[in-house]
Write a structure and sequence with these properties.
Two copies of one chain form a homodimer.
Chain A lengths: L11 H9 L4 H9 L5 H8 L3 H13 L3 E7 L4 E6 L1 H4 L2 H15 L6 E5 L4 E2 L2 E5 L11 E5 L16
Antiparallel strand pairs in A: 1-2, 3-4
Chain lengths: 160, 160
């Protein structure tokens, strides 16, 4: 069953889901960040059917998240490598990992992350590009941007 | 068709997907952050069937992301409000929005975000909790954490 496409929604979150929102896609991207490049290694780690894995890898290549590089000629076999666009998903993945660590992992984080330049185990803190303060939901307000369409933001009783 | 559960995978990204990885869930959470609380308002903004929306809202309530508060008695009607756990998804959503802005929105961001305390339109910068430096994929290394199981990280040729 093909799900509804979010491709026509004028929303960056929906556009991101259109590229990596399929069940499995973010776990494939996660493993690519951990250095997995080959079909059989993705399959073993994920326990996914070859058919679904083939589809997901093709979609991620089509949308520019992964690129294929042949490592063998007869038969041709590929490494799947993150592109610059794919590496940009690091922040999404880190935020997901940290939320799961906090709310869904009662036995402690399965994975911790070292910041190589300072040598410490790190937690990613979202900060403001202007003032450097740590950000959270309560400190922010959304406005229509240059690419906004009509009805971009909900009109709510009591909102400005 | 019920998809494979990620609930048994020992991975915080998989656990996060188990809670909010269903198609639509992050768009419901997005709208909740924008102040939408009522069934009909979610439905109108998302263009989703009542049946699917009911299922998704129930799942998000069961998993503690949203809570229901009655605003009317006969018939009983509910507001759906983000819990503390739900508000914690703000960072995930911000990272998704920014990736979509950068890679999938050629006409510019549909939504921009003001940091209320400094008054500037802001971009969320992921920084290290120890040294405060901006982080990216290349500056980090994953290690097995206290909740790790066997084979938590892939064993790769050339890795330490």
């Amino acid at each position: 069953m093909r799900r509804k496409s979010f491709g026509t929604m004028n929303c960056s979150v929906a556009q991101t889901l259109e590229v990596v929102g399929e069940w499995w896609s973010m776990l494939i991207v996660r493993d690519a960040f951990l250095g997995v490049t080959r079909f059989d290694d993705f399959q073993t780690r994920l326990g996914i059917s070859r058919n679904i894995l083939t589809n997901r890898l093709e979609h991620l290549v089509e949308r520019g998240v992964l690129e294929r590089q042949p490592y063998q000629d007869r038969p041709v076999r590929y490494d799947y490598l993150l592109t610059e666009k794919g590496r940009g998903l690091w922040h999404v993945l880190a935020a997901m990992r940290q939320w799961g660590d906090e709310w869904e992992c009662p036995h402690g984080p399965p994975v911790v992350v070292e910041h190589l330049s300072c040598g410490e185990l790190t937690v990613v803190v979202p900060t403001c590009t202007h003032c450097g303060e740590a950000l959270d939901a309560a400190s922010m307000k959304a406005h229509a941007g240059p690419g906004a369409g009509p009805g971009q933001l909900p009109v709510l009783a009591g909102s400005a």
